[in-house]
Amino acid sequence: MESPDKFSRKFKDVTLEELRGKVAEFAKVRNWGKYHSPRNLLLALVGEVGELSEIFQWKGEVERGLPNWSNDDKKHLEEEISDVLLYLVQLADVCGLDLGQAALSKIVKNAQKYPLLE
What we know:
By secondary structure, the chain is mainly alpha-helical. The protein contains four helices and no strands. The chain has helices spanning 16-29, 38-56, 71-94, 99-113.
């Protein structure tokens, strides 16, 4: 079995709060708040997930770490994944949800729902 650390890189720690603040400021200075209802943000998120899906659509199974992908393909993937993350963070913010805490709670709930097999 491959080690999960095999594909890890050194990442800059970025908090959800930092992302939330930057996305909120980005939208505020452009006066986009009137367009950012929960429904509109959800539809934009779904569109971005579609764009992300297109990257994988005809590739079949893809190896962890994407060893056979070009740098341009990896950059495109980073951009689309980032779009999905930013819309998700913005949607949670507009809905007044603490996305980080919700995710941690969901992990605990899933651990109870899917206990370790002995």
